[in-house]
Amino acid sequence: MPCAVYGLPKDHKEGHLKCRPIHPATDTPATKLSKSLAYSLTQLLDKVPAHLRNCDDFLRFLDNIKGQNIHGFCSLDVSNLYGSIPLDDMDNKTPSMYKVARQFFSNHKAECDLSSLRDDDFESLVRLCLTSDVVLIDNKPYTQNNGLAMGNNLAPSLAIIYMNQLDIQLRHQFGNNVMLKRYIDDIFLVWTSADINSDNILSVANSLNTALSFTIEMPVDDRLPFLETFVTLNRTNNSFTTQLYTKPIHSGCILHWDSHGPTSAKRAILTEKQEEPYPGPQTNPQLNYLLNK
After folding, report:
1. Is residue 104 part of a domain?
2. Helix, strand and coil in the chain, % to nearest 5
3. So what's the pLDDT on residue 146?
């Protein structure tokens, strides 16, 4: 069935409607198929070397590079990643989502539960998932012709896989002088050569793919927010320290309990918040009830 689009408020967005459009694909013709494919692709995301599953992965990365001769660090972000990923080839350096996903699946399918699925059939199923959704805007039906719909079950895994090629190209351009990790489209990058600076990093990143545009954030006084951490570089011993970071515009609302999604994920969010160093669910009887629901 067609689903109504809603907006997730984003104060930094340009235009009259400062929000991110969400298509809650909870009851579309391909919902069950996209959920099944997403489950299978998730099994292969450890084949994306730069992929961060969570903040713990990021903290381990920082610990592993302790003591290296760090000259600088920054974060890169793709402007409107989901909406910019092309479904058709644009040029030699900008392949389609289908081509990238097919190649990734072909290389690694032996390690997931779809090992016997032909590459052609996999691509056809992905196409079906991305093109069969219908959304309602002012009670008029629309289909998405390009990009990934935020709300489609497959979109996060496909975005991670598409960005993998850019991770590889960035590392190839700078060799062993660059180390990076990425959460969807947020890249934390560290360099260990005096010949590298933020300008050439941004220039190289924006030369890799015609469809994607990167922005860069540099540390202030060797401090930079990334994910849920505030990262500080201690230059005396070339190590990073972290502390909890919450965006100034954070509303305190993460996910509605009655939203479409696995109960296990909702409980995981509450459990994580219990462990954070500020008053969380443990002080709220209602949240304790939800944890045990």
Report:
1. yes
2. 40, 20, 40
3. 86
**Above 60 in pLDDT, residue 286?**
no
Given a contact cutoff of 8 angstroms between Cβ atoms, the answer to whether 163 and 169 are in contact is no
Average pLDDT over residues 61-89: 94
Concatenated DSSP letters for 115-144? TTS-HHHHHHHHHHHHHS--EEETTEEE--
* Ramachandran assignment for 272, one of left (phi > 0), alpha (psi -120 to 50 degrees), beta (any other): alpha
Closest CA to 190 of 93, 31, 66, 36: 66
In a domain, 85, yes or no: yes
**DSSP per-residue codes, 54-67:** SHHHHHHHHHHTTT
Query: Residue 34: is it exposed, middle or buried by C-beta count within 10 angstroms (0-12/13-18/19+)?
Result: buried
Question: Whole-model pTM?
Answer: 0.83
Number of domains in the chain: 1
Residue 173 lies in a domain: yes
Q: Which two tokens stand for residue 200?
A: 């050439």
Which residue range forms the structural domain that includes residue 149?
3-274
pLDDT digits (tens, 9 = 90+) for 227-280: 889 999 999 999 999 988 777 666 666 677 776 667 777 777 777 666 554 433
Integer angstrom CA distances of residue 157 from 101, 143, 195:
10, 21, 34
Output the six-digit token pair for 267. Answer: 């409980």
The answer to whether the CB of 70 falls within 8 A of the CB of 233 is: yes
Answer yes or no: is pLDDT of 135 > 60.
yes
Does position 285 have pLDDT exceeding 60, yes or no?
A: no
Whether 167 contacts 180, CB under 8 Å:
yes
285: in domain: no
Question: Given this model, what pLDDT does residue 279 score?
Answer: 39
The predicted pLDDT at position 23 comes to 73
Instruction: Give the side-chain half-sphere CA count within 13 A for 151.
Output: 23
